[in-house]
Predict the 3D structure of the following.
Amino acid sequence: MQTKPWKVMSSIALASTLLLIAGCTSDKKVAKEEKTSEQKQQVSKDVTNASVTVPVTDYTFDTAGNMFAYAEFELSGEPLVEGLGLDLDVLDPKKLDSPTKFDYTAGIESYEYSEEAMYEVVEKSGLGLHLINGPVVKELAEKQGKESDELLGERFYKLADAVGYPREEIHRNMFPTFIEYAKGDPHYIQKVDTSNYASGEENTYVPQYQVNFKSLRWDRNKMDKVLNPAAYGGTFLKQALWAGDFMGGFHTVDGDEELEGETPTDDHDENIALGVSSADGMQGAILVEEIWNKLNYVRNHLFYNANDKRLIPASVGSQYDPSKGYVYLPHTIQVKEDGNTDVPNAESLKVTDARSILTDQWLMLWPSSEFFGTTDQRPENKNVAPSFRALFDSDPYPAAPNVNLDNNAGNDVTVNDPYSVNRDVLLHVFKNIDAMHFNEKEGAFVAEHNGKEQGNYVDTFNAGYTIESLRIFQRAIDGLPVGYANSEDAEGLNTAEGKRAIELITKQADFIIDKLMTDSGLVAKGYTFGKGADEETTLNAQLGAVRGLTAAYLATKDEKYRNAARTVYQAMDEKLWDSKAKAYETVKGEMKYDAFTAGGVSAVLRAAINNLSNIEGDEKQPEALEVETIISRYVDFYETVIDGPDLKQGMQASEFWDTGDFYIEGDKSGNTDGDQVPQTQAGHGKYGVAPVLVPVEVKK
């Protein structure tokens, strides 16, 4: 076969190319794929835990759980190992378990699994409504007298120009979503096109499906066409974290060299473009385009008026007063599609569960806080990266009006720019968490509110994660770094909202210590007002408590929260870790994992390494909190639960070549790196399965 230049594509007319819109790869992919000039040597990765089986229990894709888990996997990936001193340049997907097994597991597997799963949802699967129908796209098209597909095609060209990405290299048959559904079946519905698109040396090649996503769709008939805040919020979290990473700098056009950036006008130089690289910049810009449309749809269509019992547009967030009537995001909205299977849109929306659920609310608070840190244009905030200012300076994304950037809430206006619409959503959600879910008398967050009154149950996992989400909110609203730099010190703005967030954090953390911790050091699953704490102690409860208490420590610098988190972590390690299975018991006598649990484990192990591990001055120095012990738990847990003992077991259903499974002419194994995770087309099912997480049970 003729060897073609790597990214060359045929010059198809714009409208036809973007009917099912085009996309791009990140520079990480480009770099890794170009490294395949040396043939991937087949290796056999030793199975370190053959004493268990880890069968899949269900193939339903849970969007909220997966996107939450992969957000934690991302933070427990490159940022973790780099923070521990690893030079990321030494990581190579061809070199399994190098420079150490932990480095490879975190820096390659955890991080790249996270990235690819996001692309599956927002670019490939079709699990939601198509960006051609996004509210901003439709509004711009109407103003310019164009069809939406033409307008979106022009938007992609504009974004490509802004990041220095060649227009002709935009991918084909992408399915960008502006909002995502709650569940789906991740099996592919046709043969994945793994034919040779571009040959490398020594029989390696790039498959067609990397540049043309048409064969990667999921079955629309098996999608749960429900809009749930935890699902589209969890996806928003993935998008916001990666967009912040990709757009957190500039790069040179001629050499694609990353530049930190000195001023918001650096990109006015013809040789400097937005994004940390051309390809990453393109991907980051697409993510922002999706987020921008998502937020406008959420604000304008998905809020619920508890008094009138109907969906209404949300008002200006800074002026919203919950005491005058709740306007909030309901738990489930059923979508009736318009019948267009290529670029589906919603024909009608029906609220099927009007409750406010705490999981939904914190999974919207966290990403909108992250995105606030990216879009923040307030002049008094000196901690915003110059590249972020450049991104939202009216080219390629509109700037916020000055009235929305001053300290006077009374003059704020409803507009659709990314900063303003995100702030409206952010402040509605924050105020609703406070007004609807926080019980001031008890000092804790309740799991649900029916629109009229609070429930009386505190779920430990969700209460703990609400603390973490409030921590990110406080940092964002006070102008402190978020994203990968979410623990760095800086001078804050001391806003009223930030001060209230700290109050809520401390009260809930104190509740965990005073009402949920047991004599064993473990915490109860939950607490019912008037009755007391549950007798059951689940793994999820420990994960939520450690995450929340660690967040309280980071937000307040009060050592009592760190000490309490260390106590719970030590008890979790000593009482729930099964040394034979190399996994934690999830409830007594069982080890059943879903994506929320897997994400929580990843997060807590990261928190233990970074914030809770033994340091000089700690009165107690338990073995469980030695860094080496925590790292061993990380590797063992990943090996057992995520990758599993063989190709048909473990939570990670398949993998892309970012984690070492390169394509080699003549190799039909579907597993060229010899590990326990198959290539996408060789995964579970007739045509393979997407690289996502599925529930499993660990059995000895």
